[in-house]
Write a structure and sequence with these properties.
With 59 residues, this protein is mainly α. The protein is built from two helices and no strands. The protein is rod-shaped. It starts with a helix and ends in a 12-residue tail after the last helix.
Length: 59
């Protein structure tokens, strides 16, 4: 019984002593999105109204 309490107590103390930063902050400066446009020529893709060349972040 003493060994069990020792393990549970030691585990609890060790768990509380762990670092809290699981997901560190980072800044995403660039992103590249590639999609398929089957059957389209490069000119059609370039002239497409759905192409967005620049995205300004709101933050």
């Amino acid at each position: 019984m003493f060994a069990l309490l020792l393990l549970v107590g030691g585990g609890s103390i060790s768990f509380l002593g762990l670092g809290q930063l699981e997901f560190p902050e980072f800044t995403l400066k660039q992103a590249l999105v590639v999609t398929a446009y089957p059957g389209a020529s490069p000119e059609q893709v370039e002239e497409s109204p759905w192409v967005c060349w620049s995205i300004t972040p709101s933050w």
